[in-house]
Design goal:
215 residues, mainly alpha, Arc Repressor Mutant, subunit A, two-stranded parallel ribbon, 2% strand
Length: 215
């Protein structure tokens, strides 16, 4: 068991190193300014190893944008929440931990890159989907049968449906690090205000189902 866990951690670290290297090389040289050989040389592994994790360098670049998060750390922190906490509050804590200032910044950089290099766009959407799937898996593991599965999927999809328009600017929200300028639309929300408003809407619409099943 220990050997298997160590092997998993090593594979996870290799995947993260390759993805991070691809993302940083893109920021530095542009998507056309480096090759897969440059990625594996920087990490110190083979092209075959790269192929074990990614189908192309564009996939690695997109994965690199979300490689800053630590799913294991999220799960450990969430398991410390009280047993009687509502699923909505669990999700609130999850999203606060997942959407860090660094991660939002990298997603915004990835969006800009995908606008310059359209070949990146499906991989950008894939990275967003991967984040959502990871959050879904975490919530389902934590609920452990306490919450209706349909409700769990409904809740998390309702929330993550706002993340894409948040990153691409369709929502009038200041991302962390952004400041109000002359071009800022009236009524702009800060990121914290966006989260509070979103969860207030969810509480108003889902509160009747927001409790564990009775035993």
């Amino acid at each position: 068991m220990i050997k298997r866990n160590l092997r998993h951690l090593k594979k996870e670290a290799t995947e993260k190193a390759l993805a991070s290297a691809a993302f940083e090389l893109t920021l530095e040289h542009g998507l056309d300014g480096f090759t897969v050989e440059d990625i594996v040389h920087q990490v110190g592994c083979s092209r075959r190893t790269f192929a074990n994790y990614f189908t192309c360098k564009e996939e690695a670049v997109a994965r690199g944008a979300i490689s800053v998060q630590n799913t294991t750390e999220l799960e450990e922190l969430l398991t410390e929440l009280p047993d009687n906490v509502s699923l909505l509050d669990v999700l609130y804590n999850l999203i606060k931990m997942q959407l860090t200032t660094e991660l939002i910044g990298r997603l915004h950089q990835l969006l800009s890159l995908s606008q310059t290099y359209p070949v990146l766009e499906p991989h950008y959407l894939g990275a967003m989907h991967r984040m959502q799937t990871q959050a879904q898996d975490t919530l389902l593991d934590l609920s452990n049968g306490k919450y209706d599965e349909i409700y769990t999927y409904l809740l998390i999809n309702a929330l993550y449906g706002t993340i894409l328009p948040l990153i691409d600017g369709r929502l009038n929200v200041l991302l962390p690090g952004q400041v109000i300028t002359e071009d800022t639309k009236p009524g702009v929300l800060t990121f914290d205000q966006f989260l509070e408003t979103t969860f207030n809407h969810l509480r108003a619409g889902f509160e009747h189902a927001n409790h564990p099943h009775s035993s």
